[in-house]
Amino acid sequence: MTDNSSAANSSPAASSSGDVDEHGFPRRGMLYKGVAMILGAIITIIPIVPVVGMVLDPLLRKKRAVGPTGPKVDADKFIEVAKLAQLKVGEPVQMPVIADQRDFWNTFPNQAVGSVYLTLQPDGKIECFNARCPHLGCTVNFRSGDNIFYCPCHDSSFNADGTRKNDIPPRDLDPLEVKQNDDGGILVKFENFRVGVHDRTVV
Amino acid sequence: MISNFLNWLDHRTGYKHLAHEMLIERIPGGARWRYVWGSTLTFTFFIQMVTGIALAMAYSANGKHAWESVYYIQNEMTLGWLVRGIHHFAAQAMVVLLVFHLVQVVIDGAYRAPREINFWLGLVLMQIVLGLGLTGYLLPWDQKGYYATKVATGIVGSTPVVGESMQKLMQGGAEYGHHTLTRFFALHVTVLPGLMLAFLVLHIYVFRRHKITVRDAERAPDASFWPDQILKDAIACMAVLAAVMGLAIWKGAELSAPANPAEAYNAARPEWYYLFLFRFLKFGWVSQMGEATGLGEAFGAVVIPGALMTVLIAMPIIAYYRGGHRFNVYYLWFVVLGAIGLTGLALYEDRYSDRGMEFRFDEHQAHVDGERAIELASRNGIPADGALALVNADPHIQGPKLFRTYCAECHQPASMAPFFKRTKEDGTSEAILPKAPELADLMTRHVSFGSRDWTRQILVNFAGHLAHTKNMPEVKQEQVTALLDEEGSGMAYWSKEHREMLNDAANANDVTALVEFLYAQSGRQDALPPDDKQYLRGREIFEMGQLTKGSFESACAECHSLHVRGEAEVAFDGGLPDLTNYGGSDWNRRFLSDPAAVYGENNAMPAFGDQLSPQELDLLARWLAGDYE
After folding, report:
1. A107-to-A65, A72, B370 alpha-carbon distances in Å
2. Distance between CA atoms of B238 and A62, rounded to whole angstroms?
3. In chain A, whose CA is at the least distance from the CA of B238?
4. How confident is the model at residue A18 (pLDDT cuts 50, 70, 90)?
5. What does the alpha-carbon distance between residue A88 and residue A83 come to, in Å, rounded to a whole number?
6. Integer Cα distance of B3 and B17 in angstroms
7. Which of A25, A33, A48, A61 would best serve as a mutation to test chain B binding (most B beta carbons within 10 A)?
């Protein structure tokens, strides 16, 4: 662009107008430039807005895209996971949670959507924990020899009553609500909770 | 403060020089509207990139998930319908703008020396845009895209020598499958956009090297790209954006029914900007030339367009010669107007001519099927074997198709009469006459068989209602004569004898009650419950034949068997036709598989128990009975 001034001088149209800018072109006011700039900004932003909306869909969506669904989930969101006869007094038993799995556009029937530990207490009550480790979401094992829950990922460990045994997990195992039906079925309100944080919040 | 920072930044990046290089570009004769096309194309490509990124985040390139994920984008995701709509229409806008750009470049002579290379770079960009359109059209994996693209890959396959291998490479195999989608998707979102960016940079770089082509530098004072031309470009881009967004909001991108390799899609057409080629291939002489040259389909679809393209490529060379530029301009107008003419012809034939009748019918059906498929998918989610499984098990979609194949020629829907013609030996055509009563309108999918009005007609106007049976072939005439004999002993006689009584105003409520009772036997959702007064009155008339004014010579129950719906015991055992569940899906199933078992000796309808699978019988029976959700 070094030859701009000389080119401008040789251009009769530009030099005859007199009112030229530092490059030798007709001078344009701030309004002219402002309009050009604003229009340029508008046409850039408008297509981006719906795109951002779509990309932020996971934050904006009201309905859950993934989770248990179908006839196995009752009105209060309880799912039958075991029969009373399958439980042991004082020893946790791991049970898969079987329900239809909603996965965005698909519904897959009878999928394991998670797993839980159930323990029959001597007083007849049933204790239930989500098997997902509250540390970073791996699945904990029960070691009957030591009577502890142990997570193979980062060595989190918990007593049989779900309380923390070391400082690796941020909180105790997540208890789940349990109810029984007339057929000896054990129903659990299956929920997953945010991992890695002290407070227990449903995801 | 800010100025200090900008100086610091400029010292390290040199952005001011770059901005100056980009923005301060001399335009002799001033900014003009005719220079905006290149900018609008670049802008549209920008739209495609941002919307494409969002779509790629939600799309699944898999034969069992492609339609399903697009359904999800379109119907469940925040603003997904708008993003997809913009992407869909901006793609088409790009083709239109491309033609404008090309025409402007040729008319202004901007392709002439020393700009030959840049013209060719532009033609490469054109091929990339067309390739993006082709690959993108398949991705939703719906009937429309699937069959349109099949034709395109078929054309590639018909190319001499390399065709077969090219087709296999494109499809990932000899037939369409998962890899067709993964390949098209990879081409559409990585290879082609990457090439597009690279060639776009080259194109703009070479353009800047040679500066803009100006025909009349004296028309106005010189101006700079910024802000003069940028303002015009921005306004033009805004108009393009408004058109694209308007179409996306007003019309939206359609998603037709999920791709079904087993089902013919009679309304298959390429995207509208390929219609000219589609129509060109339909000319008889094109096929004859293909036959004569031994090139087949490739003659019209590859050789001729290739030759036209070659002339386009040669334009800068042609312009070296005297009169070459003038030839180029005429040639371009010839091709563009020819393409517009053929596109118009194709659209006219499909939309308005008699030849397009079946296309319009099938297109409408495909549209209805698509909406229905979306409705089915949104109810309880899509099963693991995909949306096609939902579609294939749906009476509302499959019933009309089966009806058209097996039933419609005899039970002609009145609205489809022109469809039923046969060509005689002398070349003229004659109508195929209906041989049985109309049961349903296939255009609206409204079923009249088994309706309240149907039953009323059977009672009051039996012979008239079934009059089309007279067109039955010779061998059936004995049954037809007996069926329609108003002097005999059958239903035609009964109907004629009691017509006056049934039409008597005093008996109007009674006839309605009888119709309601019979209608309720079908078990349809809008039928009266069995404890309704009108229903009970109808039952009484069916059994006793006693009306307010007069009584039947013989009551319905004397001739017809009927196991009343919801009652444990068989109530009436009068004989055939058996009216148990008349017009309901059970009756329809029994009747379709063996009409003689239901109608007795006067039956003239062929049995379909052997022609249709049990599943097909079920779909047809349920559609005719409205027995589905």
Report:
1. 10, 13, 20
2. 33
3. A43
4. low
5. 11
6. 16
7. A25
Tell me the sheet residues that pair with A67: A102
How many residue pairs bridge chain A and chain B with CB atoms within 8 Å of each other? Answer: 134
Q: Which helix (H) or strand (E) holds A129?
A: strand A126-130
Chain A interface, best mutation among B222, B233, B245, by max A CB count within 10 A: B222
Instruction: Taking residues B274-288, report their average pLDDT.
Output: 92
CA of B67 vs chain A CAs: smallest distance (Å): 10
Partners of residue A51 in chain B, C-beta under 8 Å:
50-51, 53-54, 83
CA separation for the pair B70, B107 (Å, rounded): 42
With a pLDDT cut of 70, the percent of chain B lying above it is 100
Structure tokens of B182? 């993964």
Q: What pTM was estimated for this model as a whole?
A: 0.90
Q: Is A11 on the interface with B (CB under 8 A)?
A: yes
Taking a C-beta distance cutoff of 8 angstroms, is the pair A179, A128 a contact? no
| Residue of A13, A26, A109 with shortest CB distance to B218 | A13
- B119 by Cβ neighbours in 10 Å (0-12 / 13-18 / 19+) ranks as buried
Contact status, residue B486 vs residue B493, Cβ threshold 8 Å: yes
Contact B81, B252 (CB under 8 A): yes
Tokens representing B591 are 């009747």
What residues in B contact A32, CB-CB < 8 Å?
227, 231
Region of poorest pLDDT, from A123-137, B22-36, B390-404, B538-552 = B538-552
Report pLDDT digits (tens) over A88-112. Answer: 998 999 999 999 999 999 999 999 9
Whether the predicted pLDDT of B380 surpasses 50: yes
Q: Residue A3 pLDDT > 70, yes or no? A: no
- Report the alpha-carbon distance of residue B229 to residue B625 in Å, rounded: 66
Q: Which of A119-128, B223-232, B527-536, B613-622 has the lowest mean pLDDT?
A: B527-536
**What is the distance of C-alpha B3 from the center of its chain?**
59
Contacts of B66 in chain A (CB under 8 A): none
Among the listed residues B64, B99, B502, the one whose alpha carbon sits nearest the alpha carbon of residue B272: B99
